[in-house]
Amino acid sequence: MKPIEGDFEMTLDTAFTGYADPALHAEGLYIGGKWEAGTGIPVTDPSTGKTLAEVPDASIEDAMRAVDAAEAAAAGWRRTPPRQRSEILRRWFTLMTDHAEELALLISIENGKALADARGEVAYAAEFFRWYAEEATRIGGEFRHTPSGAHNILVDHEPIGIAVLITPWNFPAAMATRKIGPALAAGCTVILKPASETPLTAYAMVRLGAEAGVPPGVLNVLTTSNPGPVTAAMLADPRVRKLSFTGSTGVGRTLLAEAAKTVVNCSMELGGNAPFVVFDDADLSAAIDGAMVAKMRNGGEACTAANRFYVQSGIHDAFVEGLTQRMAALKLGAGYDPDTQCGPMITTKAVDKIDRLVSEAKDRGARATTGGAPLDSSGYYYPPTVLENVPTDASLAHEEIFGPVAAIYRFETEEEAIRLANATEYGLAAYVYSRDIMRAMHVGRGIETGMVGINRGLMSDPAAPFGGAKQSGLGREGGVTGILEFMEPKYFAVEF
Ligand code: NAD
Which residues of the chain have pLDDT under 50? Predict the structure, then answer.
């Protein structure tokens, strides 16, 4: 193992001050507009392995009190004029923007991602509030005549009811605002359960939400080390009508089964295994730039991260060489060190998984052109890695890597690229690079995913419908349709 160079604790004293201070956001559960002190869940700095703060560990009883609070606020919130809901969300957007730098620092501290990535996340996260502030006043309905012409069809959209929102650790701000924004705009009250690894950002944002005017009980937040039984209890309560989950496909399957018992409406944003297809006629430098973003945003810990690079034979060697140079030049370090380009992984378990996948691929003939082994450090680091000659049936090709590892496979024909891209249970995102837009669109249509980047390495945008096909999920977040996930259509057969 190679030791990491540099002092990774350099900015701790200064980083932890002001609004970015973890202690400030570990004050308690947020239920019915009140903070309830508690402890039980340690939050760790992944760059050092040290505990930053402890947040409360909610019980089933606490969760049921959160449902009570959401219920008590529900009737008033759904009657609130859309303009008023809109203005609250808009103020929340402004407050997040005002506190962007501190929120970014807090994300870097508890998640480990590089500050530049954290800044990008805060801007992206805040935009969901601005977008849904605008959408709140544009909730539409539908009017039609029956085909016979004899009757009328009037369709209204009503808030679906109390929603449970569960979010992962990899985008602690954006995965929460992508749910809270449309839910509150639609007129729903919610209970947010952020990931235990990164709860501080959620609590920090909620504090701003209260300042923006979100009424008590409309938004409740709880952290728990017992998410299975706590969520099951909430879903079993007939007052809860919606589950919006972002996380792994495995947990998503468990929650779908749980929600089936009371037929709770589910939106599921699950895992990905994105192919990144580069044709001989691609602009090489644009493809490498795009690959760096698609692979390295968040150190590879993104559901849309390029997991499998399929590169056509004619451009293969140049692509491997160019990507290797860029990956090898990245500076590894604590996320909150401003010079860092790749931060630590979230846990030692994450590093062990990457190590297992890379070791297996190497045992089967893959070659690391840079990186390829874990580092000796108290932090959870794995170096940026490029692997070539990876067998297409290696575990690396089928499991989410969730780390800074680019696995490259060679292909010859368009048909082969589509077949390889589709050889997975996942269907979230895909990337295609070619100067021939007809070819790129044809291949994009052939790949079974909810999203395709054509000559682009980044697709997330609050105005676009984000979500997956196959076992990557159900429903969409963002865009015009995102708000409908929190609304129930009601058809009136009206005679007039
Ligand atoms: P995870 O599934 O382990 O956890 C996600 C959330 O679910 C956390 O809050 C966790 O505490 C909670 N949870 C865990 N078990 C639960 C249970 N039995 N009942 C209720 N809640 C439970 O995922 P993670 O490790 O936090 O995040 C990484 C995963 O999320 C990856 O698979 C990634 O692809 C996926 N992800 C998907 C999207 C998307 O939009 N499709 C976005 C980000 C992350």
Answer: 1-14
